[in-house]
Amino acid sequence: MKNWEAMEAFVEVVRQGSFSAAAIKLSVSASHISRLVTQLESELGSTLLFRTTRRIRLSEAGELYYQHCRGLPAALSSAEEVISSLNQAPIGAFKMTCATTFGERYIAPVMNDFLTTHPKIELDLHLTNRAVDLIEENYDLAIRMGAMKDSSLLSRRLCDRKEFLCASREYIDQFGMPHTLSELSKHKCLIGSKSHWLFQQNGQRKEVKVSSQWRSNSGLALLDAVKKGLGIAQLPDYYVQEEFDSGRLVPLLSQYQYPYSGVWLVYPKVHHPSPKLKAICDYLIDCFQDNAPFQPTQAYD
């Protein structure tokens, strides 16, 4: 961009046929246009224009330079118009990710509703239980659960969630019910993607490391194992609320229940968030506040 102003002045002189006409077009003085062109010729080491009192004429170098540069001012103006339009309306490609089950149950339906009124958004919704790298994998937005640890990312709280320790009635009939956190080591524990369970003890956050002979990164697989009496697991409310209501599962150690943790909208730090990022985040937050997808069962607190 070093010689942009001088190049623009040169192109306009050729188009208008004179320094004075170019100066009027660019709203500057004729002497300023002349200085810019002279400066450009000095930078390039070539004469671009032959000047007389009546007219200007392109040199061979000037003709070549003009042919290469004549479309650039218009291209810049077009690029600025495109960006201006992009900054005013939510349009274009948008790549986001979310945990599989939460995404299928709640995020996908909400995003599909959003797209009915924003048809110019090109959505790529990737559902996975893997913690993707937003920067390396070019994601615009991720929906994540629990505490946020990556300071290179920005976040907005989407909603609350609660995790319940639970087991089937068949398991409890056979192996009994734990009454303290220390008793968990005596039970068959089933774990998902995390090997620590979260509790609250004496008003403090407490993580308990769990050993298990059964593990899966699928919440639905974990839920199925609990329902079939294979052991105890800790699962989010949106997996187990219906099971509690029906009596198929029983909540355990409710006295150590950790209060609500967050579901977060997470995105890379940017100086100017795009309208599509802002519109999607605002829409998701509004939908979850107005119509929460799940309400934790109060009877087990």
TrEMBL record:
Recorded GO MF terms: DNA-binding transcription factor activity; sequence-specific DNA binding
Coiled coil (residue ranges): none
SUPFAM superfamilies, A to Z: Periplasmic binding protein-like II, Winged helix' DNA-binding domain
GO biological process, one term: DNA-templated transcription
Pfam families given in the database record: HTH_1, LysR_substrate
UniProt keyword list: DNA-binding, Transcription, Transcription regulation
Domain named HTH lysR-type: residues: 1-59
Domain of life: Bacteria
Similarity annotation: Belongs to the LysR transcriptional regulatory family.
Name of protein: LysR family transcriptional regulator
Species name: Marinomonas rhizomae
